[in-house]
Design brief:
By secondary structure, the chain is of the alpha/beta class. Helices cover 37% and strands 15% of the residues. The chain is globular, with a radius of gyration of 22 Å.
Length: 394
């Protein structure tokens, strides 16, 4: 289904209307308190309109039966992230109405993993990924994706890989050549990428989902919870509700016109608002969360090290914490070898520290290819002993 309707709305309501709350938005009201007025995704309006009205169990069963008869299995079929064994440990993938938090120290690869999962979602026919970045421009994210596509995960062919500097060099060199040949415009980016042997395949792969990955350069000053919710609602209308929301990152979401006494209160408002968006609009929401100062000093980062309040733990359905494997290998383990351990510097341990629908405290590892902004999504359970006196069994 086309997203033309969403883009037309954005064109009519650019900058201020997309990011700033309406003038009649009550200052004392939180998005979590106004879920009754959420716009419902097309095709599921009756379900969402009744979501906050009392219903008997018999009515709920009848509605669920009608959905299955119509072939609507969205309540039962998860959306794979493309990372294995992560999908297996969280029940097959992302589910509508759920909030997933991804935490870790700076530079660990949170944005890389999140953008790659958004790309994996958008590659599925009929599915759309909505990626809001408070850290990077849309063009920078596009360039990251070109680098990722150059190694084509999960194949991960590093021989054909192109790094960000190499990509920039190709564009600048080809643009200069075109200008010297007397071209009035110097050649388009699409032409340069399509005609260069190093980037042609990456561009072709990216074009397969380019219409289903929606990017927003969010502003920590004006891109509010209300704006995120309204943009998501428009996308739900345009796509039949087949949208997954990705936020990079949670602590930078604006809460205007509300005011918070401290960062803990602000984080509480934001995480409650994101969870409410997931519930009210029936979409999965995936949000990156930064670590606090104590967590950055810790030998191993945990859920309680995330910056903000205890609401992070209470509101989320799944919490995943990332740590560099080399840094959290137990030095007391009888098999520990410092020379062999160095090979784990490029491996990141993903720990499911909260899992409302399954087992928690599960560790798995994925190899990071940082120059190409990509993880090898074919991971495995951690076999070695990690610090915190925790042994992971195969």
């Amino acid at each position: 289904m086309s997203t033309r309707r969403f883009h037309d709305d954005m064109a009519d309501n650019s900058a201020q209307s997309a990011n700033m709350p309406p003038a009649n938005y009550p200052g004392g009201e939180r998005p979590a308190d106004s879920r009754q007025r959420a716009r419902s995704p097309r095709g599921s309006s009756s379900r969402n309109n009744a979501a906050h009205m009392p219903r008997t169990l018999a009515q709920v069963m009848t509605e669920a039966n009608d959905m299955v008869v119509r072939g609507d299995l969205t309540e039962y079929v998860p959306l794979p992230t493309g990372f294995d064994p992560l999908d297996g440990m969280i029940g097959g993938g992302l589910r509508k109405t759920e909030l997933v938090l991804l935490g870790g120290a700076q530079g660990i690869g949170k944005t890389i993993a999140t953008l790659q999962i958004a790309r994996n979602v958008a590659m599925r026919s009929g599915q759309y990924a909505f990626f809001l970045s408070y850290e990077h421009t849309e063009t920078h994210l596009m360039n990251r994706l070109l680098c990722l596509e150059s190694i084509n995960p999960p194949e991960v062919d590093l021989k054909g890989g192109i790094r960000l500097k190499d990509l920039y060099d190709v564009i600048i060199a080809e643009r200069a050549k075109s200008t010297l040949r007397g071209g009035s415009s110097g050649g388009s980016l699409q032409t340069i990428l399509r005609e260069n042997a190093k980037t042609a395949m990456a561009l072709a792969r990216m074009n397969r989902y380019a219409d289903r990955l929606i990017l927003v350069k969010a502003s920590p000053a004006v891109t509010t919870l209300r704006a995120i919710r309204e943009m998501t609602a428009r996308l739900c209308d345009a796509t039949g509700g087949n949208v997954t929301v990705f936020v990079d990152y949670l602590q930078k979401v604006a809460i205007h016109p509300e005011r918070a006494a401290d960062e803990g209160e602000k984080v509480t408002i934001v995480v409650e608002g994101l969870k409410d968006t997931a519930l009210a609009l029936g979409v999965p929401v995936w949000a990156i969360v930064a670590a606090d100062r104590e967590g950055l000093k810790a030998n191993r980062l945990h859920l309680y090290h995330l910056r903000g309040s205890s609401a992070l733990d209470y509101e989320c359905d799944i919490a995943i914490i990332m740590n560099n494997k080399y840094h959290i290998l137990s030095k007391e383990h009888v098999a520990f070898n410092p020379y062999q351990a160095r090979q784990f510097r490029d491996w990141v341990v993903f720990t499911i520290e909260k899992n409302r629908a399954g087992r928690a405290m599960q560790d798995m590892e994925f190899q990071l290819h940082a120059p190409y902004f990509s993880f090898d999504p074919r991971g495995q359970r951690v076999q070695q002993q990690l610090i915190d006196d925790k042994i992971i069994e195969s």
